[in-house]
Every structure is written in structure tokens, then in C-alpha cells.
TrEMBL record:
Transmembrane segments: 20-47, 67-86, 93-117, 129-150, 218-235, 255-273, 285-304, 358-384
InterPro entries membership: ERG24_DHCR-like (IPR001171), Sterol_reductase_CS (IPR018083)
Keyword vocabulary terms for this entry: Cholesterol biosynthesis, Cholesterol metabolism, Endoplasmic reticulum, Lipid biosynthesis, Lipid metabolism, Membrane, Oxidoreductase, Steroid biosynthesis, Steroid metabolism, Sterol biosynthesis, Sterol metabolism, Transmembrane, Transmembrane helix
One Pfam assignment: ERG4_ERG24
Highest taxon, organism lineage: Eukaryota
The protein, known as: Delta(14)-sterol reductase TM7SF2
Organism lineage string: Eukaryota, Metazoa, Chordata, Craniata, Vertebrata
Organism, scientific name: Seriola lalandi dorsalis
The enzyme's E.C. designation: 1.3.1.70
Pathway(s) of this molecule: Steroid biosynthesis; cholesterol biosynthesis
Amino acid sequence: MRPNSQAAKHRSSHDTEREFGGTLGAVCIPIFLPLTVLFLICVSRSPEASVLQWPPPLPSADQLWEPLAPVLLLGWIGLHALLYLTPVGKVPFSFVCFSLSGFHGLCISGVLLMLLLGLGAPLGYLFELLLPLAVCAIAVSFLLSVYLYIRSFWAPSHALALGGNTGNPLYDFFIGRELNPRIGNFDLKYFCELRPGLIGWVVINLGMLMKEVELRGSPSLAMILINSFQLLYVADALWNEEAVLTTMDIVHDGFGFMLVFGDLAWVPFTYGLQAAFLVVHPQALSSLGAAAIIALNGIGYYIFRKSNSQKNQFRRDPSHPSVARLETIATATGKRLLVSGWWGLVRHPNYLGDLLMALAWSLPCGFSHLLPYFYVIYFTVLLIHREARDERQCRAKYGLAWDTYCRRVPYRIFPYIY
């Protein structure tokens, strides 16, 4: 890169619009989100399970620490680091090589868990370890984020994320300075994105199911549905792992506290709150109710998978018979925007499917408590915010073509609503 273009990039990175509340958000979020994780776990285990209870249920120091927790957490991360390094499913992407072996990691984890259960391992003890494990995951998130921030100052300028190189240390620590930090061939961001946290979420769910078996002799229908739905979601993400290489997290956002904490602590300990809730607050579910919930999840999954597959196929090969006849709009960048098929219905049909599934994960918990619906409420806010970020970036990238696209596809996520 020529010196003058380097200077231009440097100026633009410092002038980039700061997101998530800028400096104030960068200070508050790393404080309040970890506390939120611990609060939600405590609420899910309390008899009232009320997010509005005051004073909130506070854990004792003994409940926050268990020597076994860091051993399990670091062992789990180490196991998946080894599986990541196995020579399975490598794929070149943007002149680097990513290990697409996440689904193999899920399968191997499943085999190991079945062996442990066969040997009588008390997997239900994960219920008691939830708080200590969450504390350790939060601590690891902070330590890794500090390491990433320090090492980013030795990274070449072309390896820095545009939005994370503002010169404000608090904001850059939060958002991430380096785009894809690597140790040799080990991509730290890509590893954390889909491995220990996402598969760990499934393991925690299984632990909640086994705890329910210990307490009541068998898992409830509601618990089985939640475990099944969320296992399908994780397995789908790992089976279609290549698709994550084009997401905003990988191609745009730096790897800082925001993504580290989200991957290692937020996802495994908040996305499965429904299972933890059911351990203490069992819910009866009729066959008709279960059938309706299964249908809702199935519809959501169908929309989610079909729309993502259509987009990915179009990116790989626009001449493929399944997408060749779709109507498109040309852009100045040479890329084309889909305005028919799933992507002519709304601008983000995959988000619509995601939200329908999120609702289906909460409904087995009944309507007596708000806590099980935390995920669908949070996820709605997250996807609307993400859609707004995507809107800004696409308008800047495609210009007038994006305005034409928006006129052709006026609804963002919900048809005829939003």
C-alpha cells in the first residue's frame, strides 16, 4: 500500500463512527453485561425467578467459586483448540486458511459426553457449577481481551479493523483493534466464534436435562424440546460453518472484548437460560401445545436455512440453476443485490427465521415468568441493531443501488410490519 493511501486509511479509521454508545458504552458494557450474566443465572435458580425482584437474589462467595470450574473451562477450551488444529476441512478464504472442523468437534464432544454418562459421570452437577463456570468464563474473556489489545500494537496496519483503530484505548479495547488475530495458523476470532462457547451451550443444556432426571426421574417434554431445538440450531451453524466467513463479525468487526465476551460467556450462559429455568420451575406441556411449538420452530428453521442457503449459493455461483433466475440489481462495485426469492420478501429473511425459532425456545416454559423470554427479547433488539448497522454499511458501499433496492424491498425483517 502506498504511503498516502496508508495515511488516508489511518485518518478514516480515526474518523469512523463509533458504535455501541462510543466511549460511554465501552466503559459500561464490560461492567454491566458480566453482572447481567450472573444476575440471570441467579434469577433462574431462585424460587421466584422474577427479573423484577428487589433486592435481587445475590449469591454468596462460596457459590461463585469452585476449584473444579477453571479446570473444566480451560480443559474444554484446550480440547477444542486441539480439535481446531486437526487437519480436517481446511478452506482458503481471502488468502488465509480457516479450519472448518466445527461439526467434527461437535460430534467428538457428543461421543465423549456419552462415554462420560456411560461411566456414571454426574453431568447434572453442571447445574451447581453454572455460576462458578460463568465467573471463570468472564475472567478468561477479560484476560484474552487484554492480550488481544496489547498484541494489536505489533500488528501491521493492514491487519487492523477500521472501526477499532480510533485511538481511544477504552473504545478500541472494547470493539477490538485487530481484525483477525492469529497465532501461526490459529485464528483466535474464528476459533472463539463457533467452538468452545457454542458447543458449550449444548453441553450446559444437556447438564440441565440430566439434573432434571436426577430430581424427577425423567426429563420433561419441555426440557427435551429446548435441548432438541437448540442442538439443531448449533449443529446447523457448525454444518454450514463456511457461511460465517462472510458475516459482519468476521469481515468487519475487530476482535476485542465485545466479541470475546459474547463468544465465551454471553452465548453459553444466557442463550440456554430456558433449560436452567426448567430445572427449578418444571412446566407441564400438552401434546397439542408441543406440536404447535414444534411447528413454529420448524417454520422458523425452514425460513432461516432456506434464505441463508439461497444467499450463500448466490455468492458462490450466481449461475447455479437454483439462483440463476432470481432478479437482481447491479451495483457500482460489480456485485448484484437480490430482489426476488427469499431476499425479495424482506431484507433479512434469515433474521425473521431466527426470531421465530427464538420464540419457540421460550414457549415451552409457559407464560408465568418473564425470564425464559429474555433471549427472544434480547435477540430482537440485537437483530434490529445489527440490521441498522448493516443498513449504514450497505448504503455507504452501494450508494444509489441500495436506495433502489430499499424501494424494491421495503420491509427489513417482518413483512408488512418492519
